[in-house]
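SAMPLE LOG
Freezer: B-3
Tube label: C17
Construct: single chain, 153 aa
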Amino acid sequence: MDRIVTNPKARHDYHVLETVEAGIVLRGTEVKALREKRASLREAWAEVRNGEVWLRNARIEEYKPGGWTNHAPQGDRKLLLHKHQIHRLQSLTAAKGHTLVPLSMYWKNGRVKVELAVARGKSQVDRREEIKRRESELELRRALARKDHRPRT
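STRUCTURE (predicted):
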C-alpha cells in the first residue's frame, strides 16, 4: 500500500468511529497527477447523494503535459462502494454531528483507493484535552530518556 496523500486535519478535528475502503472514479490525467502525488484532501468531505457516495472538494492538481484533455482540479468524484456499504454509511451519517471524511488516498493493486471515515466532530475542549495528553506523554518520555542517560557512579 503506497500512500498518495493523507488528510492531516481529519484525526485532529474529528473522532473517527468507523473506516471503509472505497474505489474512486478518475480520468486518465487525474491518475497521472496522483502518480506524482499532486493532491490534497485538506478541505474534502464525502456525502451520500441519490444512493451514490461522492467525494467533494478534493483537489487533484492538473497534469502538466495533459494539455486540453486535462481535468478540473477541484470537482465531485464518485466513490465506488457496495450498495450495503452505502446504506450503512447513510444510516451512520444520519445521526446529528456525524459526517464522512476522507482520511487518505493510496495505491492498492494498481488502483487508487480512498480510506473514508464516519466521524463525529471534536469540540474545542476535546482538542485541548488531546493536546494536554500528548504533551504529558512527551514529558514522561523525555524524563525516562534523561533517567536512562545519566552517568552511572
